Amino acid sequence: MLRRCVCAEWMKLRHSYIWMILMILPVVSVLIGSANFYMNQGVLTKKWYSLWSQVGLFYGEFFFPILIAICCAYMWRMEHHNKNWNMIMTAPVSKTGIFLAKLIVVGGLMIFVQILIFILYFLGGKLVGITDELPKELFGWLFRGWIAALTISALQLALSMRIRSFAAPIGIGLCAAFLGLGMYVVHLGFLFPHSLLTIGMGVLSQTGLSAGERLIFMLTNLSYIAAISIVAIHRMRKSDVEA
């Protein structure tokens, strides 16, 4: 049943414009970050690490959370139109399958985005003249960024499920990104989903996480994903959704 739900969600995206957004925002992030690095090489002297600090600042702090919010809002867009909620709630499909299928599909989209940002980061570095080897931490940043993206995706899916407006959840996601930055600055980053993205991707600090911090990071994200999904699925089962 879950497999059928996932296939149905993929079919909705086949001819959509979401793929353009998935490619445009990472490109813009790398262009801005690479240009800023190129113009400030006298100060930014750590090559790949300095480039990541610039690309990651725009991508991890702003464009990636917005991209996640847009994708999650789009996943519920069809359900919020033409009273399709009535069909969904009466269909012989489990509510768990509906929500998890959307989360799985968004997770797949985020893998695509992370691979794309890796390619663009590499090309950007070569274009600005970096010849050193890539940072050994890079794949850890990308993987942990994807894990944190799943947490934010669960949260944004839950918001978009309840809010019919397409723009409102995206606005909330943008505000949450700024709040997450503040939480990170006051050393409470492990307590908030968007701060976890900052920590996981090494956006503001390229020093690696200790083994204990990596464990806390993974457990916190998994706990958030499980808790948010359980609450969202429970509301789908017990509450009438406004069609």
UniProtKB/TrEMBL annotation:
It comes from the Bacteria. Pfam families: ABC2_membrane_4. The chain crosses the membrane at residues 16-39, 51-76, 97-121, 141-159, 166-192, 215-233. The keyword Manganese does not apply. Keywords: Membrane, Transmembrane, Transmembrane helix. This is Multidrug ABC transporter permease. It comes from Ruminiclostridium papyrosolvens DSM 2782.
